[in-house]
Amino acid sequence: MASPPAPVAPPVAHRDSGSLRPVIGVALVAALGGLLFGYDTGVISGALLTIESDFGLTPLSSGVVVSSILVGAMIGAAGAGNLADRHGRRPVLVTAAAIFTLGAAMASFAPSAAILTAARVVLGLGIGVASNLVPVFIAEIAPPLYRGRLVGLNQLMITLGIVLAYVSNYALEHVNHSWRWMFGIAAVPAVLFGAGMLAMPESPRWLALRGHTERARAALTRLRGPDDPAAVEAELAEAATRAGDTAERTARKNRWRTLTSARCDR
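Predicted structure:
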């Protein structure tokens, strides 16, 4: 005898587009960090030709200039998590925007290959921080139903940044000292990124995990709108449960041990 069919779960109610507008706006501002990631990674492909002629680089020194950004990226990615856990997502992302701006200015005015290499390391620091924290910040401000799609916006912006780097390389090809302009243009989205993040709310999840319940409620109300208090309270309750989870606290202190653990936390 055939077993009866399993009951079908009721469909999940979708939010209307209007209630998503604040979240989409915040996600777009944060994703400027991804755009800078892509631009500063891709711009060297066109800039290197004139850099080599201006500074008389050898193949070895050219390789050092190109790869130095990876050194900064490793340092930035490794340190961003601890800083964000301690000080919050938004202040660290604002700092990343300042780093991007400083790196773009250093690169565009670099008088020597050594200074340019140092500037590339600084840009790498910004890339490392952005690659670590932008998707985390977007995930923590997004409603669960749209979290995957909004986090994917960061990947789209990285790709767009690479495309814009190639476009600027082509457009500025015949300008005197074109590589300086190629690097300097990145300061514009970097400033917009920083100014935008200053106006954004802090991650409600981070606020709740740190015990700032009222600030977390205010941030969630701003993001979800005043007409959906039930969703706000549900997300606050979930974050509070996480805050009281001693296993999660232990995992934070024993990051290397987590790699060999069979436990999988959602």
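Summary: Residues 59-87 form the longest helix (29 residues).
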